[in-house]
Specification:
It is built from nine helices and no strands. It has one domain: Orthogonal Bundle (Tetracycline Repressor, domain 2), CATH 1.10.357.
Length: 197
């Protein structure tokens, strides 16, 4: 793994656990075992480093959006895998909170270019979910109460609220309870996949 990737991974974890305003280059340097000057070489400012973290997450969403173009996909499984991913990450503390979610909570104090990057992440996520919900409704897998775009935003709120609930109660199972309830509300018929399968 390159030093640059180690720096991104370290910043991701620090943002997830402390937030943007809760870590410094000194924290990253200590975790990665490099000098602060080395971090500045790769990322001149803390905002640059945080944007690299968010852009890495956005790249994953864009990749998932491209996969939705094929006809052969199960919308219920797609949402189940999404919630299952977070369920596992929260349970094993490998990613206890979405980095974009943590940054969104700090938007008023973020540098403008980082704030825009965070907003773009949520636009991408909303578009991905809207596509899944639309196709799922067309296939009869989902029953939507309103426009797919509104349902996508409601689902995002549910997932991020579930993350917050799990953190507030110190109980990872709270995330699973809330997320599965949200899936059950959407699904007309078909089993809801869990993190285990």
């Amino acid at each position: 793994m390159t030093t640059q990737q180690k720096l991104i991974d370290s910043a991701r974890y620090l943002i997830q656990t402390r937030g943007y305003n809760g870590f410094s280059y000194a924290d990253v340097a200590e975790q990665v075992q490099v000098r602060k000057a080395s971090i500045h070489h790769h990322f001149p400012s803390k905002s640059d480093l945080a944007r690299a973290v968010v852009e890495e997450s956005r790249a994953g969403i864009v990749e998932q959006i491209a996969l939705l173009e094929g006809d052969d996909f199960d919308p219920v499984k797609k949402l189940g895998f999404y919630t299952g991913y977070w369920e596992q990450c929260i349970a094993d503390a490998s990613a206890p909170f979405c980095v974009a979610g943590m940054l969104a909570a700090e938007l008023p104090s973020l540098p403008p270019e980082l704030a825009e990057c965070v907003r773009a992440h949520f636009r991408d996520l909303s578009r991905w979910l809207e596509t899944i919900l639309t196709k799922g409704a067309q296939q009869g897998a989902f029953r939507l109460q309103g426009a797919a775009s509104s349902e996508a935003e409601a689902f995002i709120s549910l997932i991020y609220g579930a993350m917050l609930t799990a953190r507030a109660f110190g109980d990872p199972s709270k995330f699973a309870d809330v997320a599965r309830g949200g899936l059950r509300r959407l699904v007309s018929t078909a089993a809801i996949p869990t993190a285990q399968g």
